[in-house]
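Many introductory courses stop at the sequence. We go one step further.
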Amino acid sequence: MLSELVASHVPDPERNPDDAVFITERGRPRDPSAVGELLRMFRREFDPELSAIGVDAEHLTFRSLRKAVAAAVLDTAGVEVARDLLGHSDAAITESHYAKRPDLIVEVAADALDEVFASIDAGKAAKRET
């Protein structure tokens, strides 16, 4: 899901001048504490599903989400784009924090999130059919 969000991201300087990935309905960057609260609510609601696929809900945090998005941007668009997205003053900072991460961990986390959201979408589709 995060990979799709980053891949489908289209810059809109008028609506989203900071080119933030997580924005409000009005195009403003979301407050990290608000995103953190949404993640806490998500973890509480879907803890059984996360556990069933082997995801420790406590590790699903704003910081881990920021790292996953930054790693995906770095891998697909390069260090300069990732640096700008994260607001770092120097690309070396971005590389030191995000480029040296185990690919397997990011892939496993992305696959786990995709599985969770796929089952949620399937459940919603089944409810609509009944």
